[in-house]
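Support reply, case 0932

Customer input (verbatim):
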Amino acid sequence: MKERNDSFDRYLASTQRNSIIRERSSADFDEVIRGYRNVEDTATGERTSVDLGNVDSIVDKLNEGDPGRYKQIPLRDDVAPLPPENP
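Our regenerated output:
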């Protein structure tokens, strides 16, 4: 019985992992179609949408005065965050 339960638990974990992978892939596609990505000010928590094609240069420019303050938030991280790693 334990072996059967362990097998089912592995199957369930695999199914859940595959579902998250599909959701993240779909979110990546949606983000490209929309053409924008959120940028977060880590000091205030405020988010702003910026053009996806220029997001790298925008974040780099914003971080010149205060390195690490601004970060990109890919859509996949909002809609389908990765589960925490098992210790």
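We compared this against your earlier run and they match. Two observations from our side: Residues 2-34 form the longest helix (33 residues). The mean pLDDT is 93. Please reopen the case if you see a mismatch on your end.
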